[in-house]
Amino acid sequence: MNSRLTYRGRFAPSPTGPLHAGSLVAALASWLDARAHGGQWLVRIEDVDTPRCVPGADQTILQQLAACGLHPDEPPVWQSQRGTLYQQALDPLVAVGLAYPCACSRKDIEQALAAQGSGKPRHGELVYPGTCRHGLHGKAGRAWRLRTDSASNPLQATANTTLAAPETIATGNTLLRWTDRRLGSQSQDVEREVGDFVLKRADGLWAYQLAVVVDDAAQGISDVVRGEDLADNTARQVVLQRALGLPTPRYLHTPLVLGLNGEKLSKQNGAQALDTATPQAALQALHHAARMLELPPVPASTSAGDCLAQWTEAWRSVQAP
Question: Is 251 annotated as a binding residue?
Answer without folding.
Answer: no
